[in-house]
Amino acid sequence: MPTLQEEPLAALKPVIYWRRSMDKDELEAAQRYFTVVLHRAAIPAGSLVIPRYTALPYNEELCEDIATLGSVPINTYHQHCYVANLRNWYYDLAEITPRTWFALDQIPEEGPFVLKGQTNSKKFQWDTHMFALNRREAGEVFWRLSTDGHVGAQQIFVRQYVPLHKLADGLNGMPVCEEYRFFVLDGKVLASGFYWSSHTEELRDQGLEFDPNEVPKAFIDRVISLVGDQCRFWVFDVARTAEGSWIVVELNDGQQSGLSDIHPEDFYSALKARLSPVIREEEYDGL
Between the CA of residue 250 and those of 15, 43, 51, 117, 271, what are the distances in Å? Predict the structure, then answer.
């Protein structure tokens, strides 16, 4: 008799494991398409578990608990680690993402730079906790981040600041730029939208429109091919530079990533269709 890990993917019923404090509109959309549980102990055996905003802070423990309950997470712990830590994916995408240094003493004297944790940034405190003109300022920002209750627990990295196609000025000097978020499932784009959902209405009032189809398909395909099978369900954020080219800003776990400007109904209906048994039997024929 096959073990749970050997069962065909189509045999597992998708279940959303939801964090209670998150957006209620998104929760309602998820409930229209999936069984949603609020406690890991309530996950039924034989489930394909999609932890929405519940993959952290203890992902390895969560994956072990899901296995103990007789189910499988959509991303393994190792897949989660690949996309959630810049150090793990940087070298695969080095040609299409800003140069990065993994120690403060490695950076040149002159910047500019941006600093972030291995997974998270403090972009809404741009002028004090992210942007630095030179090495001296980078040291000051590094110290502030290292004492931050959230990012301070992560490794802190320094990235080259690449000017982007700026649309507006956000909080504390943060540039709001032309940037798009793409969710990927099994090597194909699941859903996409404008990254800066907090500024969408304001920018559209100014007559600006945004379409992720602006990003060349060849570039999207290249990102997906470079990541390959390192992660099953993930996101990448892409921005247009001030010079008009495209760069990858960030990768992250699709379990933990916000929808940005993607409508919850569109996202969960697409996720349901992609994970439905009929479609999955065709897509995974022979696996």
Answer: 27, 31, 20, 12, 22
| 130-103-111-196 Cα dihedral, nearest 10 degrees | -30
pLDDT in tens, 118-137: 878 888 899 999 999 999 99
Sheet holding 35-37, edge to edge: 35-37, 13-18, 47-52, 72-73
Indicate the class that CATH gives domain 4-82+266-276.
alpha beta
Scored b (16 or more CB within 10 A) or e, 113-149 reads bbbbbbbbbbbebbeebbbbeebeebeebbebbeebe
Amino acid of residue 188: K
Residue 249 vs residues 56, 96, 239, 243, 265: alpha-carbon distances, Å: 21, 9, 7, 15, 26
Taking the CA atoms of residue 108, residue 110, residue 112 and residue 116 in that order, the dihedral angle to the nearest 10 degrees is 30
Over the stretch 184-230, which tens digit does the pLDDT of each residue have? 999 999 999 999 988 888 888 888 888 999 999 999 999 999 999 99
Angle at 260 between CA 255 and CA 263, to 5 degrees: 90
Both ends of the chain: CA-CA distance in Å? Answer: 17
| Strands across the sheet containing 131-134 | 100-101, 156-160, 110-117, 131-134
Sorted by where each begins, the domain ranges of the chain are 4-82+266-276, 99-161
Give pTM, 2 decimals: 0.90
